[in-house]
């Protein structure tokens, strides 16, 4: 059953809200809690479908995982190397992060795990993880083109590797580092461009030795030492900056808006969107900057702003990779041209986001151009006509981005199936309508 939603012109947005917990950090907290000795507690876990599937998978791999009455989560881990063979297929739903990180986890456990997911996840490339994990000794049996479903036959004799990432991907980096936990010696990943470092930060917090060496040519080498004793921890999950991006851009484009987003994660490897919006002239104040659970957070005060087009450098892509769809929406309201460079990875997300954004913007009367891996959006400074119906193709960020566009465009915007929003932002419609949006079932 699909769930079409329509978004019409909003009232000026006002109020203060906290968006759900960070998806990247939530997955990792569950995985590391499952590998730690003793009890871990997680506060603020994202209870979206992607993360709930990781919780179920950790249970299937032998950890105790339960949600307590106060909304926090309790885990009782198995210790590094202590996972057990799951009795059934692990279905990771829509989640690339869940699938790829878990492939790393099981690659160095001597048993077989079978992975699958929804139609979106089954179409995504997995060779980027199976290739390095095979070098460590695991065997992979995948569908044509290295796609899921896949069986991973873990090795009982893992080899540490030194691996240079061919694509900037925190998921690939993390899969290798997690495989390295149950591997003798030192496993090293070399990155050309820094990607989100939640794995490194949280692994250290659980007791692992993770070293980062900055090489002379700008690359850096991240090493994990095998067989650490991880011990249970208390993890506090910040609000997800990638989810906060939707109400943030909505407040910028709906005239007269002023909202506060509380406790938003401000890890510098995640904040490229906010830097870009400020360059476009956005009025965003970062208030009460503090640390929560080992990650920087702040409250964001955001007021409606006149935006101007900018050039977004390719080097910034890793720090805002999931935010291009909503940035493209902001660009459609700006005066002048916005050029977003280095977007090749957008083509292998939950859907081909490059194509989906271009199609959606055209359907809403926005002038766009494709120049290789550069997306060009021409804003006129006036609200775009809107009126389009956008195909979501199981991609939550496409659904949310175009619902935000409809909040300030001439005519309402419809998305054909908003169900996917549950993967990362449960309660999106209610939260946005609470701020002043008019998002309704068609
Ligand atoms: O490590 C992570 O938690 C993530 C890494 C990114 O993917 P890639 O590693 O494929 O760039 C991002 O798009 C995804 O939403 C979450
Ligand atoms: C790309 C995303 O997630 P994943 O790769 O985990 O499916 C996302 O949330 O935008």
From TrEMBL:
Keyword Amino-acid biosynthesis: yes
SUPFAM superfamilies the UniProt entry points to: EPT/RTPC-like
Top-level taxon: Bacteria
Record keywords, A-Z: Amino-acid biosynthesis, Aromatic amino acid biosynthesis, Cytoplasm, Transferase
Subunit and partners: Monomer.
Organism: Magnetospirillum aberrantis SpK
Family matches, as Gene3D superfamilies: Enolpyruvate transferase domain
Record GO terms (molecular function): 3-phosphoshikimate 1-carboxyvinyltransferase activity
One GO cellular component, as annotated: cytoplasm
EC assignment: 2.5.1.19
Residue numbers annotated as active site: 322 (proton acceptor)
Domain (Enolpyruvate transferase) ranges: 11-430
InterPro entries: Enolpyruvate_Tfrase_dom, Enolpyruvate_Tfrase_sf, EPSP_synthase, EPSP_synthase_CS, RNA3'P_cycl/enolpyr_Trfase_a/b
Keyword Cytoplasm: yes
Family: Belongs to the EPSP synthase family.
Protein name: 3-phosphoshikimate 1-carboxyvinyltransferase
Main location, first listed in the record: cytoplasm
Signal peptide (UniProt feature, chain positions): none
Binding site for phosphoenolpyruvate: 23, 96, 124, 171, 353, 397
């Amino acid at each position: 059953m699909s769930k079409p939603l329509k978004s019409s012109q909003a009232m000026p947005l006002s109020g203060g809200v906290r968006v759900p917990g960070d998806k990247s950090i939530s997955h990792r907290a569950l995985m590391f809690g499952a590998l730690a000795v003793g009890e871990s507690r997680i506060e603020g876990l994202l209870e979206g479908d992607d993360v709930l599937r990781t919780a179920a998978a950790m249970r299937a791999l032998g950890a105790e995982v339960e949600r307590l009455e106060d909304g926090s989560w309790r885990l009782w881990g198995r210790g590094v190397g202590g996972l057990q063979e799951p009795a059934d297929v692990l279905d990771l739903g829509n989640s690339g992060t869940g699938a790829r990180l878990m492939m790393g986890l099981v690659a160095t456990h001597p048993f077989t795990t079978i992975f699958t997911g929804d139609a979106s996840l089954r179409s995504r490339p997995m060779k980027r993880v199976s290739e390095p994990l095979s070098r460590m000794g695991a065997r992979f049996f995948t569908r044509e083109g290295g796609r899921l479903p896949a069986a991973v036959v873990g090795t009982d004799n893992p080899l540490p590797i030194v691996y240079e990432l061919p694509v900037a991907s925190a998921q690939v980096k993390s899969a290798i580092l997690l495989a390295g936990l149950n591997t003798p010696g030192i496993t090293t990943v070399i990155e050309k461009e820094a990607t989100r470092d939640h794995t490194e930060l949280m692994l250290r917090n659980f007791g692992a030795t993770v070293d980062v060496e900055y090489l002379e040519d700008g690359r850096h080498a991240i090493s994990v030492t095998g067989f650490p004793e991880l011990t249970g921890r208390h993890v506090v999950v910040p609000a997800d900056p990638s989810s906060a991006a939707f109400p943030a851009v909505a407040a910028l484009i709906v005239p007269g808006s002023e909202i506060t987003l509380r406790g938003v994660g401000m890890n510098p490897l995640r904040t490229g969107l906010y830097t870009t919006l400020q360059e476009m002239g956005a009025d965003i104040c970062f208030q009460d900057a503090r640390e929560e659970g080992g990650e920087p957070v702040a409250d964001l005060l955001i007021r409606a702003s006149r935006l101007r087009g900018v050039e977004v450098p390719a080097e910034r892509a890793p720090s805002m990779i999931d935010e291009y769809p909503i940035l493209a929406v902001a660009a459609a309201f700006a005066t002048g041209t916005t050029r977003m460079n280095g977007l090749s990875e957008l083509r292998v997300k939950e859907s081909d986001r490059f194509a989906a954004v271009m199609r959606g913007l055209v359907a809403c009367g926005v002038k766009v151009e494709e120049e290789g891996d550069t997306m060009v959006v021409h804003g006129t400074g006036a609200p775009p006509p809107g009126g389009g119906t956008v195909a979501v193709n199981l991609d939550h960020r496409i659904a949310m981005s175009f619902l935000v566009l409809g909040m300030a465009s001439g005519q309402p915007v419809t998305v054909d199936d908003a169900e996917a929003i549950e993967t990362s932002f449960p309660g999106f419609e209610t939260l946005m309508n609470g701020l002043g949006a008019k998002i309704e079932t068609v």
